[in-house]
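Case 386 in the screening queue. Each case pairs one protein sequence with one candidate compound; here the compound is flavin-adenine dinucleotide. For every case the pipeline is the same: read the inputs, emit a complex structure as tokens, and attach any notable structural observations.

Predict complex for case 386.
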Amino acid sequence: MDLTLSPAEEAFRDELRAWLEANHPGREPTGDEAAFEFRRSWQRKLNDAGWAGLSWPKEYGGRGATLVEQAIFSEEVVRARTPSMANVLALAMGGPTVIAHGTEEQRRRYLPPILSADEIWCQGFSEPGAGSDLASLKTRAIRRGDEWVVTGQKVWTTFAHHAKWCMLLARTDPDAPKHKGLTYFLMDMEQDGVQVRPLRQITGESEFNELFIEEARIPHENIVGNEGEGWAVAITTLMHERATLALGLQVSVQIALRELIESSREARGINGRAASEDPVVRQRLAQLLIESEVLRLNAYRGLSEVMRSGVPGPEGSLGKWHWSEVNQSLAEVAMEIAGPRAMLNESESNWSYRFLRSRANSIEGGTTEILKNIVAERVLGLPRMR
Ligand SMILES: Cc1cc2nc3c(=O)[nH]c(=O)nc-3n(C[C@H](O)[C@H](O)[C@H](O)COP(=O)(O)OP(=O)(O)OC[C@H]3O[C@@H](n4cnc5c(N)ncnc54)[C@H](O)[C@@H]3O)c2cc1C
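Case 386 output:
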């Protein structure tokens, strides 16, 4: 892949940079509700200016931009330290899944309110007994006339407390082999049959929830793809989760690392020497710099693969696995350098928060062990484990 931007791409980047500088909404407020509303109004502002869903087709509210422009956008918003958009799961996963597998009617109905953040989405895949082995899920959907009646439990459902729609994977044929009896639904969260209970994380936030589903109703027309073909649709969602976020995440690592290197010049070790002069710290920082560069180049490799084939492939698993390791090491080194001062949350990167939040990186979106299995079997072509 040629990593130089064309004059048109450079012009696009400069226009975006200028817009972000002029419209930056400032620092995100604390508190779940306030932060969420802040992100929602930021997304609306981006959408009004035509920046949300950049690479989505124009007829569904996108801009029909190229994947390189989308990649430039993903990098620049992180570089400018803008807040995330409120509807992140729908933008990164739900929308692309509807574009790939949905009907024309579904695309027209669901995509515009994703972009405007009027309808927030969550992902109801994991269950108490089905995480890594997702295909063994038990949530059951039974057809009654023109609708499906769903009963079961989901867990770790990020943003379910804000969501209007849930990408729900449920078992519709208990007699079929486990990957074949699943169907992918869009479930309306605003109904009595759906109860959302928040779970508190190590950071103190409640980003995710338990979802109790008791005879919830879903119209037949809300199936994405075909009945019994939910596994293939779910894989599209997961591939997008792992690949789409990679570009922004690697920039976030680069920014945090730069700040860490800077702060290592100020921080003093027990012998009074600057941390940046300590040979062990220097070696760890150098290693992180090398790894973050590998992360960046692999993210571009993933992008060129998507440009070639049109869809993200299993290579995205490598990027997600590597990112979680680099991000966790970065936060660990930062905590060691800052020592007790890390608790004061003085730095822009907020090390103690970053350290605690990064523990989830090797679990969310597929655990590292599972991603290693995918890379072994589907990228390297090694024999299957089972
Ligand atoms: C912050 C966060 C947000 C999340 N958001 C969502 C969400 O919005 N929607 C959603 O559906 N899910 C969400 N998840 C759930 C996430 O996808 C699961 O936690 C993950 O897939 C692992 O499943 P599990 O927790 O059931 O662990 P398990 O599958 O029980 O795994 C336990 C351990 O065993 C290992 N293991 C399991 N099987 C194998 C194997 N075959 N080979 C080697 N090792 C194995 C795992 O790697 C892990 O270390 C979220 C999780 C986190 C942490």
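Case 386 observations:
- The longest strand covers residues 209-219.
- The pocket of flavin-adenine dinucleotide is lined by residues 122-126, 131-132, 156-158, 208, 360, 363-364, 366-367, 369-370, 373 (CB under 6 Å).
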